[in-house]
Design brief:
9 helices; about 0% strand; globular; transmembrane helix; membrane; transmembrane
Length: about 220
């Protein structure tokens, strides 16, 4: 008779496939950092701005993460509420990354309004269904995807903000301080955090596909 693992049980991991993905992740990080280097070398006066490499790369990673989270939401009933929260986070960050364009071409403060329109209904749905969310989160919390997600969240929304403080860089550099140092520290750290979030969404897609495979075995 077919044997089904419960949703909370760990799913089998293919070591060779995992090692290959790890190698691909390393290559992607290397390519991103090479892009940062080229921006630093070749974009005098526009370094770490909307016209550079880093900020468009951040937006691309966020858009890809949101697309993967949407796929999970549409295909995995096991993570209906968790995937909603995972979808809202990169979308809100993507909107935030377009703040200069939105302020210039829509209205000043447009990004705050759009983020509020996205985040508040999402939180309402999650809080209203908090018991279902807790059950889903218990399934997700033991996964590699969640570990990457937690690391990306802390890197982007906590560490980069603290690491990019002007006061700290002014204290470190003294009279040699330039805003470029502060911008580089914050934006490149954000880029790495968004990269981890992207990896987390990739791993989540693979996780729900393994769940689906086990269910049909």
């Amino acid at each position: 008779m077919p044997h089904h693992l419960p949703p909370e049980a760990p799913t089998p991991i293919d070591f060779r496939a995992t090692s290959l993905r790890a190698l691909l992740y390393i290559v992607l990080i290397g390519l991103l950092m090479q892009g940062v280097m080229l921006e630093a070398l070749g974009l005098e006066g526009q370094r770490f701005s909307e016209r550079g490499f880093v900020e468009p790369a951040q937006s691309l990673l966020l858009a890809a993460s949101a697309g993967l989270a949407l796929y999970v939401r549409l295909t995995s009933p096991r993570l209906t509420h968790v995937s909603l929260l995972l979808l809202a986070l990169p979308l809100a960050s993507l909107i935030r990354e377009q703040d200069a364009w939105l302020d210039a071409w829509v209205f000043d403060g447009a990004w705050q309004a759009l983020v509020a329109l996205l985040v508040l209904p999402t939180l309402y749905v999650v809080i209203r269904s908090r018991h279902a969310f807790a059950r889903e989160f218990a399934r997700y919390a033991n996964s590699f995807s969640f570990g990457l997600f937690a690391a990306g969240f802390l890197t982007t929304y906590v560490y980069s903000r603290l690491f990019g403080r002007s006061e700290m860089w002014q204290a470190i550099l003294g009279d040699a301080y330039l805003r470029t140092f502060k911008d580089a520290a914050e934006e490149v750290t954000e880029l790495f955090g968004y990269t981890l979030l992207f990896f987390a969404m990739l791993e989540l897609v693979l996780l729900v596909r393994r769940w689906r495979h086990l269910k049909t075995d």
